[in-house]
Amino acid sequence: MRRNRPTAPVPDQGRASTGIPGLDHVLGGGLPLNHLYLVEGNPGSGKTTLGLQFLRDGAARGEKGLYVTLSETAQELHTVAASHGWSLDGIELFELVSDEGLGVEAEQSILHPSEIELGETVRGVMGVVESLKPERVVFDSLSEMRLLAQNPLRYRRQVLALKKFFAEQGCTVMLLDDRTSMGSDSEQQLHSIAHGVIAMEQAVDQYGPERRRLRVIKMRGIKYRGGEHDFVLDTGGIAVFPRLVAAEHRMQPQARVVGTGIDKLDALMGGGLACGSNTLFIGPSGVGKTTTALACTLAALRRGERAAYYLFDEGLSTLVIRAKALGMDVQEYLAAGQLKIVPLDPAEVSPGEFSHMVRAAVEEDAATTIVIDSLNAYLQAMPGSKHLMLQMHELLTYLNHHNVVTILVLGQHGLLGEMRAEVDMSYLSDAILLFRFFEARGHLLKAVSMVKSRTNFHEPTIREFRMSPQGVEVGQALTDFEGVLSGATVYRGNIPLLGDRKGTR
Q: What's the pTM?
């Protein structure tokens, strides 16, 4: 009978920070020391910037760094660093293509690969490493070395020789590869040689800036976070936003219901908004979804809580002015920092970056109420509805684990009759508050109803709803109306409406 032997614990390995906190998080603490890593991506994906951040982090820790360049000049690297506001002090730049190598007296040129040049290139790298003895090395780029080799076998042998040499010297190495002149066989060879592989990608949609993502394809001996992670390349360098995994953020749930600040709306909803749940406000444009979300946010602020409002559809000044006109002035809370209203352009923000913003609001600013207004615009920041569902599911689950009150606003197409939404969020929502227009006595009126709640026993009624200078008002149940939800309203009684005086309008 075969016995299962206890597995030995994985020994702790020293780590080298990449200089990018988000990437270190993806890697579980950074790159294991004294190994060779492949960073691949098309030109412009951010490899050079990543390499420079890696070396600058080492220099800040007192470690020697070496940047070996076959494809860029030292002046170009200084220009790249200056664009980020960086200095390359403490980093040695070694150009394998010098002015002497391009002179008339040089029979060989790096632009004309040969066996002699490949050997000289490798010996040049080894020579400078032996003299400088750096802890961190960036080699840019392997595509030039591949051109020099011309033969896949020779290319593999030279890379293996460099790997062995760097390991003996105690270097942590990043090999940058722009995938030019590269077949599938060469790619697999590199992946098998390297201790770890990081792929950087950029994609350009029909509108807006390019979107960048990275993925750890391989990393021996450590547990890392798989999948694609959004990142941005901007002034100041690279910022990586690790993919959110809600299961890592479980907390003790709280069975608590908070009020919306509107008594009759609380009654309709079965007491109010449940902590650790999300409520979808759905209805046509102009029906009052944003105003109701603001009223709920204001109630949380008056309780002394903190809130974050993510605004995709309108400007900050427009929202604040409209709120003040409806008796919901939030200026004092904005000035005190208790409320953050963040206007966002869906064409500029990636899903990973947005999740990072929400996490920061919850974990760093202690926000207990989060509003996303609206999902229609947020959808435009996503590569497709499938990804929207997956990422939104993780985000909502994360917020629920942190006992946050989450309000989602979703606009429907159309005003009366049958309506449709760009995406079906009903199955992800813990509660759904439905807004509708209806016509009576020659007026365009509004109705609100609670159609779903996983946490509260709610009213099955439909109530009249309106906005006034006093804020949001909710009226009696519309028992004498039929067809309010369908938009084909039939009036069958004398129920006084919110605008009636003494029962008549």
A: 0.85
